[in-house]
């Protein structure tokens, strides 16, 4: 496949110098009329060329009958004609020099096979000409800085977007419009907005990458239903993180994907939405569960401050509100650390009845003396060491007079701390709220939502500071590629994994009882004997395993019994003999796994074994490949982690060896992604010193 | 203690025929001025008597100099004078016949010891005269149906409450005012509102009980920081449930209580907020985490429809919104069950491109033809079998013309289904929203919050239908009371529990080795021997336990060894001999416990044993006493429940025997609540048939 064009190729889409609208209408509420109306209303600075077979004048502009009649190639072509007429027009324009096309028309891949063929032709046109195509079946886009809104959403009827630092991309036209309306209602400035429709060319990943590179975009919002190209998606998100631009994403379909999960145990776990969760967490994306949460975090992020600490100072005029906000903080993993002792003493001296630890409560005394807000806020800013202060003022700013005085009192406190996050929880008119926002405060009505938004900002801060973390380790030089299409026996699977840096128990293959004894003598007693046959996957069930053999005589007897069992139970199996391995005792059983997921091939899983896996589904996921940092995070994430960390008076186990194995497995799985269906390292025993795979299975395609 | 007066005694508080304000002020924004202003503004129908030492005229009303000068006893006295002047005035009024007093004044138990003494005097006055007292240190109350608002909250400056079916009680004055403002902003009608202050007499429980009995109150909202009398609190909540009135409660202090938890393992678990969770869940209360959630559920409950089914029909004009709402449904335990096949076919016939399973999507076609809303909604109402329909219409009702047409289209669909819950998710002006609400719809902006509110209504519906569930079993006739102050050995503890109906392993006490052998012969081998001494609690640690003794000789040796160990390790212990019990094998180890919690003595805990208790804290709580229904729910609630239910190919265990033991233990603990500190039945082994306590410990006070 040819490499994708870079994000500069999307510039003609967002900043065209000239635009033509194919299927233009004189009626400003029609699909071909709205874009012309919006371009005119917005003051688009370049020429607007309506195209309509009837010619004449459209919304006051001279119209052209065909693309070919235009005075030149429009840099961007907007298409609102039936599907059958789309391809020829786009091809003609692209060949004349058009660099971007936005296709509203439906009737493509979403409709039927004929539509799919038409869409395939669009893909070819884009690839051949380099013209970037949005849609088909999309609702268009806007760039509010350019007075440019080629879209037929009715949501601009109530007001054009306010320019600002947010870039939004949506795979749903209707929900994308809904999100834009909510953002505008909330006075959130949005620079660019784009709906991707059928994504024949420009998709969510392209758009996120463009926003990551666009200097005017500082916050990226995305509504996603599914992605197809994991590497470009992950790459775009990593690009945004590197540029320290927060990505807030709604990925819907949690429950639907869950319901449609495949039947097999492994697949049903990996195929569910938890893999999206893992991927987005890895990339530092805030995954919003609800629209409100999305807008809260986007809104808070527009302030451009992402503290690395999650310590929050809370100031209220009601003890109840303080308790409630402290509860919310605990729920969202925010640290309501106490004020330094000296600062507490200073506040106590100002107001003896005040609570000064954190949450700080100025009490109702504040109503009599607003200088308390100044003194308290300044002290907390100067000495608290918090990532932000959240202050609760109930409906006080609803009264213009007291609202104004409160703003002054705050201004005095914050004059030397303009770069700090101040979050106000208050009920006020939209106008008063905008006055406070203009002064640099974030304003929320609900204190719990304010705390949640701060938690998200601090997570961004930590993600930006951490970056991608330690890189995946190099694939060992001697790593053997996994053969395609082969059935791999236990010994082969373990040999492959060992070559990739996953520690496996040493073992020998014995064709005879005496070879088994010799191997046991070398490895040291007690040993385990296991049937070795690519045709026998479930060894225990056919009596193919004998544990804890203490001496040569026990090995000899066991060898004979195992082969007899195997021949009886599986007469047709090709038998290599028995594997001889030292008996591994003690330690904790874990499971390392690799599975395929439609979106994020391959995915690495980490489980604790036994009831943790079977009853509690105590598992965590990561997208391969990853480095030690992510691997260590996986280890700490499972519910049973205390068992690895010295719970119940047991010794602490070798978590580092475990993490190294996970990272090595992720690199190996990624390198062999096209041939591996699944890898199951079970059990992988973690001991006080070291860790070792005792059994393993690799399924290939 | 004398029995508390019934809720009719609060009537003079909410519906007085005459009111006096002590400490009345001519200044309508002062603490003694606001209540007079609000009473006048509200049109309070009875006489209003200002009392001020200066006499004269106050806000146009003739003032009196003392309580004694009043023409009669005011049915309710409002008090806004310094603390030192409060008691005499209240006593004087109460003796003349005043039935209720509301005390704004601070400086009582919240301040210092002298204040505490004043408050104690108020308690006596109330008890002696029967005058019900609210406060001191409270913000007052209102009854909007009576034009009656004796409060000094500034929140009425922006508008008086709209009468309605909600009754609200708050332990925080400031946050109670905040909640009222939010409710008024949202057009939620509130009949009564009361802040309890220091609760010298009238408390949250009294007020909830009053609302439960008050025919005009249909929805109860409460903001709670802590309760003192568990029986009255639980009784009031049960009364509300019996009256089918939903209670929505914010209980704050989750994190604070957590942080202040006592040091000991058991106490730190029981003393935390999870016990409130358990109590409120038992009583069918909706515990709201955030203010928004509280108001959402209160708002939704005002419709007065509480479906017993949690099946939700979803109709949208955007596929994306449908997926998002289905996700929210899964998160909140709501069942997005598919439409019946026949109904699906009918909808498909109307609109072939529509999604018709559930969520149902009318697609953008709806914009062209609003009769689709009528047809789809009617079909889903008639044939879906849902507890409610939630419909997503984005900003359509923001346009007056389309908003009006949509309302008509819905009216046609719902004309025969006025008693059904219809929830609209839409962006509209407050006026348009109120028009829809007047037509009987619930309106939400955020679809996820709409789904969450429906989930709460359906939980209320199930709680009302279920009621209190099966009653606690009777305490067995032969149940022996737990002796106070005694140290109880294992044998005694088990004997007590056995008398209370908790099955314990049969055992005998042997003073000599030969008695031990005789007991073992009777009980059957293999047996267990354990040291029996009230002075030795941790038997295993001193070598006082021997398991799996297979014959008489083994018993004899073990007996000698155990006594030798005990005498060596604990020379001063009084030793009764050894307990002999059959060795219990197989089954699953669980733990039944009873602990004290400050608010909810006694609390019963159920754990799975081993790592489930020690690593995963897999525990569930209930307030004692309770019946089999709650006990069964406890059993099903722990994460490890699959282990009791046949996981990993093991047999299903006797959950009913386990539930019976839990219910019996709860009844026994409650009957002995004043003498028990804790009970620990560990392990309690659940087997395929039956269950049995193998060890137990009772700590007394």
Describe this protein's structure.
The structure is a homodimer of 701-residue chains. The first copy, chain A, is built from 25 helices and 28 strands. In chain A, the strands form six sheets. A six-stranded mixed beta sheet of chain A has the order 8-10-9-11-12-13, sandwiched between helices. Chain A is flat, with a radius of gyration of 32 Å. Chain A is an alpha/beta fold and 701 residues long. Chains A and B meet through helix 5, helix 8, helix 12 and helix 18 of A and helix 5, helix 8, helix 12 and helix 18 of B.
What's the alpha carbon Rg of chain A, rounded to whole Å? 32 Å
**Helix/strand-derived class of chain A?**
alpha/beta
* N-to-C CA distance of chain A: 22 Å
Count helical runs of chain A: 25
Shape of chain A: flat
Helical coverage of chain A, percent range: 25-40%
The greatest interface between two protein chains, and residues involved on each side, is: A-B, 60 and 60 residues
Number of DSSP strand runs of chain A: 28
**Unreliable runs of chain A, pLDDT <50, ≥5 residues?**
257-271
Q: Tell me about the largest β-sheet of chain A.
A: 6 strands, mixed
Strand order across the largest sheet of chain A: 8-10-9-11-12-13
Classify the oligomer. Answer: homodimer
Mean pLDDT over the full residue set of chain A: 91
How big a fraction of the residues of chain A is strand?
Answer: 15-25%
Structural key phrases:
18% strand, 701 residues, 6-stranded antiparallel β-sheet, alpha/beta, homodimer, 6-stranded mixed β-sheet
């Amino acid at each position: 496949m040819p490499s994708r064009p870079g994000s500069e190729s999307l510039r003609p889409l967002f900043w065209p110098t000239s635009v033509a609208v194919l299927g233009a209408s004189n009626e400003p509420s029609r699909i071909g009329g709205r874009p012309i109306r919006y371009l005119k209303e917005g003051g688009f600075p370049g020429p607007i060329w309506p195209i309509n077979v009837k010619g004449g004048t459209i919304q006051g502009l001279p119209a052209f009958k065909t693309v070919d009649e235009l005075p030149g190639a429009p840099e961007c072509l907007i298409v609102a004609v039936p599907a059958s007429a789309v391809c020829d027009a786009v091809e003609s324009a692209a060949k004349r020099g058009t660099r971007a096309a936005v296709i509203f028309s439906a009737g493509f891949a979403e409709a039927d096979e004929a539509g799919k063929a038409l869409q395939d032709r669009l893909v070819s046109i884009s690839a051949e000409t380099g013209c970037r195509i949005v849609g088909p079946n999309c609702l268009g886009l806007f760039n509010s800085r350019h007075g440019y809104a080629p879209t037929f959403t009715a949501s601009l009827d109530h007001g054009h977007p306010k320019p600002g630092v947010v870039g939004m991309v949506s795979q749903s036209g209707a929900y994308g419009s809904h999100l834009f309306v909510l953002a505008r209602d909330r006075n959130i400035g949005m620079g660019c907005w784009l709906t991707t429709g059928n994504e024949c060319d420009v998709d969510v990943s392209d758009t996120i990458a463009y926003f990551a590179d666009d200097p005017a975009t500082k916050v990226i919002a995305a509504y996603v239903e599914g992605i197809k190209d994991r590497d470009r998606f992950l790459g775009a998100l990593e690009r945004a993180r590197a540029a320290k631009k927060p990505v807030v994403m709604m990925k819907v379909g949690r429950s639907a994907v869950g319901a449609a999960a495949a039947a097999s145990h492994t697949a049903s776990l990996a195929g569910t939405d938890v893999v999206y969760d893992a991927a987005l967490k890895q990339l530092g994306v805030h995954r919003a569960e609800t629209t409100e949460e999305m807008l809260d975090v986007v809104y808070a992020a527009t302030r451009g401050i992402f503290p690395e600490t999650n310590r929050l100072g809370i100031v209220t005029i009601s003890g109840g509100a303080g308790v409630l906000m402290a509860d919310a903080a605990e729920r969202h993993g925010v640290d309501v650390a106490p004020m330094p002792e000296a600062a507490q003493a200073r506040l106590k001296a100002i107001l003896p009845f005040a609570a000064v630890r954190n949450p700080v409560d100025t009490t109702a005394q504040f109503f009599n003396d607003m200088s308390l807000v100044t003194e308290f806020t300044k002290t907390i800013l100067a000495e608290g060491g918090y990532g932000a202060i959240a202050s609760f003022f109930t409906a006080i700013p609803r009264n213009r007079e007291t609202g104004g005085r409160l703003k002054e009192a705050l201004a005095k406190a914050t004059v030397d701390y303009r770069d700090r996050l101040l979050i106000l929880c208050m009920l006020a008119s939209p106008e008063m709220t905008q006055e406070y926002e203009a002064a640099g405060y974030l304003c929320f009505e609900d204190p719990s939502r304010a705390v949640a938004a701060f938690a998200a900002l601090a997570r961004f801060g930590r993600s930006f500071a951490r970056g991608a973390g330690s890189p995946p380790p190099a694939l060992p030089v001697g790593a053997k590629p996994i053969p395609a299409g082969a059935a791999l026996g236990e010994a082969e699977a373990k040999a492959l994994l060992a070559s990739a840096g996953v520690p496996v128990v040493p073992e020998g293959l014995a064709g005879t009882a005496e070879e088994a004894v010799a191997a046991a003598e070398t490895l040291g007693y007690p040993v385990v004997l296991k049937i070795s046959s690519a045709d026998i996957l479930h060894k225990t069930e056919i009596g193919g395993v004998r544990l804890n053999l203490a001496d040569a005589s026990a090995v000899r007897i066991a060898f004979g019994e195992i082969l007899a069992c195997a021949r009886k139970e599986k007469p047709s199996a090709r038998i290599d003999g028995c594997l001889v391995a030292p008996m591994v005792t003690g330690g904790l059983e874990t499971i390392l796994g690799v599975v395929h997921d439609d979106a994020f091939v391959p995915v690495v899983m980490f489980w604790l074994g036994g009831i943790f896996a079977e009853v509690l589904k105590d598992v965590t996921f990561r997208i391969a490949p990853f480095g030690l940092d992510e691997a260590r995070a996986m280890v700490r994430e499972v519910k049973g982690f205390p068992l690895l960390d010295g719970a119940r008076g047991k010794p602490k186990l070798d978590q580092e060896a475990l993490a190294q194995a996970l990272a090595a497995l992720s690199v190996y799985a990624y390198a062999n992604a096209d041939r591996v269906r699944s890898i199951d390292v079970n059990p992988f025993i973690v001991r006080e010193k070291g860790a070792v795979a005792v059994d393993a299975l690799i399924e290939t395609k």
